[in-house]
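Can't attach files on this board, so I'm pasting raw text. These are the components:
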Amino acid sequence: MNAFADIKPPPLADYNHADCMVYGIGNIGRQDDGLGWAFIDWLEGSGLCDMARTTRHYQLHLEDADLISTCRKVLFVDATKVADVTDIRLENVSPKLDFSFTSHALSIPAIMATCQQCFDRVPDVQLLTIRGYEWELQEGLTEDAAANLQTAIEFFSQRGP
Amino acid sequence: MSRKLVIDPVTRIEGHGKVTVQLDGNNKVVGARLHVVEFRGFEKFIQGHPFWEAPMLLQRICGICFVSHHLCGAKVLDDIIGTGHSTGRNITVTAEKMRRLGHYGQQLQSHVTAYFYLIAPEMMFGMDAAPEQRNVLGMVEANPDLVKRVVALRKWGQEVIKAVLGKRMHGISSVPGGVNNNLDIAARDRLLNGEDGLVGIDQVIEYAQDGLNMFYDFHEKHRDMVDRFGVVPALNMSLVDEDGNVDYYHGKMRIVDADKNIVRDLDYHDYLDHFDEATEEWSYMKFPYLKDIGREEGSVRVGPLARVNVTKSYGGDTPLAQAALERFHDYTKGKANNATLHTNWARAIEILHSAELIRNLLKDPDLQKDDLLVTPPKSDWTGEGIGVVEAPRGTLLHHYRANPEGNIEFCNLVVATTQNNTVMNRTVTSVAEEYLSGNELITEGMMNAIEVGIRAYDPCLSCATHAMGQMPLIVSVFDAEGKLLDECIR
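---
Top answer:
Structure tokens for the assembled complex are below.
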């Protein structure tokens, strides 16, 4: 675990409110790209955060600016192939129009900036990335990715300070 | 020394393509091609699957026009089990109207995506603007109120899809012989009246009119460029009803020429008698054409521009769209319109038309009826079917054959982008000749002009072949021997 030394574990209680959302990004038909949805599966099954809204999508769309405009806090969960993420990383995200738009990809900072520009508000946003390894057309996580998911689960299951 | 300019990938389209432009020693364009360089293979891997899985699996070909693929496949399944229009025992009125509602909802949200997210940035900032600005996030910065309205429009369209298919993407509604649900009153009312965070139908129609007015303003300011950009000939094809008016869900295929004379009316079940497909070694995308006329004269254009060229009227039930259509028809004095950028005009009209069609359906009590399914006897099994719908990008055809066990043995998909292959290549050539010929230096604006020409068709290369990954623009210049002279990436 290497990536959240500067951020204390957020107790799930922080997200356990109706104006909070946990948003899984990914594609369960692409092996470890399903990590974001798998985290949501666990969260919904655990009963630890029943008040929060949960959602799953393949990728971000501009409409997500409208979606998060109704939230006070949002936790995005996504798989990553970035090698310097050993297992999981949690980071705070700030709005930024990074002009990353294509019809197939839009960044979280750009969604936040759009929310800010169009709806005059922006929620607190954190991004949990979980390291994945294989992205072929196949369902199911690899063993190493499943272990990283477990690390994320244990991290979020900790009691808050 | 001759040079070859490569635009790879072409950005802000659905999928991955590249363009090569061959220049001679005087920098005159001597050839241009749109290459589709990916392979997807849905026609192959559906083989062996149970026939009823096809509309569910094949809609996964695309994240934008999945409803069209779902419905097209459903119409094939109707044929296979012995129901549908062609058998004289059609699906129920409620089932057909539910399918139409989902179809119109998808057309609205797909057109809104293309028109506002992908095309409007050029209208707002111009073709020479920096790529960092010339996209939807540039619009967020320049006009957040417009983007807010666009988000509201797309969201509403997605809610229509969700009300019919259960999910915003890749849901299931159509089954062999009908649909699996009607429209509940609560969903109907929130789409009609809106609720907190969701606009109602009156606002949708107002926003659609704003979108059309945006084109009128742009056209007024840049009339010469818009009217002269990529004017290329092609026959025009669309599904039409018995009155010769566009029907997005069902009808006969009508093909008209430049004077709007009818070149062909055909039952789409006979498409193999009329169409052939040419191939080129430099592209995975085929080139369909009317076989008796030949490839050069017999290639067709499909999609918004073709549809508004073919249709005579929208009828009295959609008066705002009808007025817009009449203005469009008057502009070319009854002739077919071949101006590539007028495709965006046609697309804006169809956003309005879709909104009015949806409003009419939402007010139709047939959608709350329970007669959803026709189940013919097993003896009516035909084992083969063909379905056609007007997808947002144009005429879409699915054709399957299943064995007696019900497993698919043959599948052929002819998607709109494939139909447009020849006319897109003509557009690329026309724009390259206009913007690149005689110039020593290739500017960003020149390259983007070519992309604008392609983007007007809103090509879905995902549907035609495959799409994945990031899409940076790489431009490479080659000499006649294929030696790389220069390369830049944005």
